[in-house]
Amino acid sequence: MSTKDYLEKDYYKVLGVSKTASKDEIKQSYRKLARESHPDANTDDPEAEDRFKEISEAYNVLSDEKRRKEYDEARSLFGGSYRPGGGAGPGGFDMGDLFGQGTGGAPGGERLSDLFGGLFGGRSRGGTTTRSRRGADVETETTMTFREAAEGVTRSFQLTSEAPCPTCKGTGAKAGTAPRMCPKCSGTGHENTNLGGFSLSEPCSECKGRGLVVDDPCVTCHGSGRGKSTRTIQTRIPGGVSDGQRIRIKGKGAPGEHGGPAGDLYVVVHVKGHQVFGRSGDNITITVPVTFPEAVLGSEVRIPTLTGFPVTVKIPPGTQNGHKLRVRGKGATRKDGTMGDMLVTVEVTVPKTLNGDAREALEKFRAATSDYDPRDGLEARAKGA
């Protein structure tokens, strides 16, 4: 998330309350949203964790009278485009205190007081500005068979992303030399501009925010300290995924910078069709043909399953075409590790040709059931409609 996004965040909007909301209203709204967005209650939603953090972050500020007052004053001062950082700001209040106790977290685990510690000329609590950066997210694709998608599979992915330059080990300097501290920013990576009453921190124009100056740049990365890294990772694709689904695998993206956490890997899944089985959510579907006598008199038929071990299903007497039967526990793997069901659709088949004995038997059957008319009342119902 960019700095602009942080600066424009509205905690009242996050919690869905007005700026005049009472503490009880704030608490009530927080509890409701926290229950709805808790990661444990949204295992199929990769964005739930971020929403939960954002809701908790907003509540930690608005539930504290002092922090809420400071937040309101800052938003009023900066026209609603404010995000607290460190250091003393206008009005004499300490902007760093707003999140200095670790009440909120930016993506990648950076503390907000560190992320914006130099925004108004201040530093983080340790006395130096944090320069760690979360690694970039990486997206890739994979194609799975129908069975792999239902049961889950371990996949290997070859990923290419930014990493420290292998030649200079990330220093940006040519072998045998070393970068020196930037004389303009004294190694901080930023310079302050006085705007009358407060100072605005910006990346140093000399070192471009690195805090270091390279006099003799590396021939591979040309002084940037960054290069391309190709690596192979193995990860488990859970069972129950569907075609087109986008899965987030936390911490498997590009490496972070200066101790920052790695980004996430997003895998778009493509699932091949199957000539026998289909999917309906967590259930596997199959259409099983049965003969006319089996449907009328009832029978037991063997049907295949996705695991390869057939099961025997009882066809009740008088089963109609299209009737559905359920076989428990023979479906796709659910997110909680349990199994869905297999839904069996009965398809009554009619032979295209008959020998003499079969025809004679059917003629006797037709005569014996001549008083049964399945179309009785059909025309009357059609006129009534």
Question: What would you note in describing this structure?
Answer:
With 385 residues, the protein is an alpha+beta fold. 23% of the residues lie in helices and 23% in strands. The protein is built from ten helices and 15 strands. It has helices at residues 3-7, 11-15, 23-37, 48-62, 65-77, 112-115, 146-151, 292-297, 356-368, 378-384; strands spanning 138-144, 153-164, 180-181, 190-194, 199-203, 212-213, 226-237, 246-249, 265-271, 278-280, 283-290, 299-303, 311-315, 324-327, 342-348. The strands form six sheets. A four-stranded mixed beta sheet has the order 10-11-15-14. A hairpin with a 7-residue loop joins strand 12 (299-303) and strand 13 (311-315). Helix 3 runs antiparallel to helix 4 (48-62). The protein is elongated and about 105 Å long. The two termini are 59 Å apart. The relative contact order is 0.09. Mean pLDDT is 78; it is low at 1-7 and 79-130.
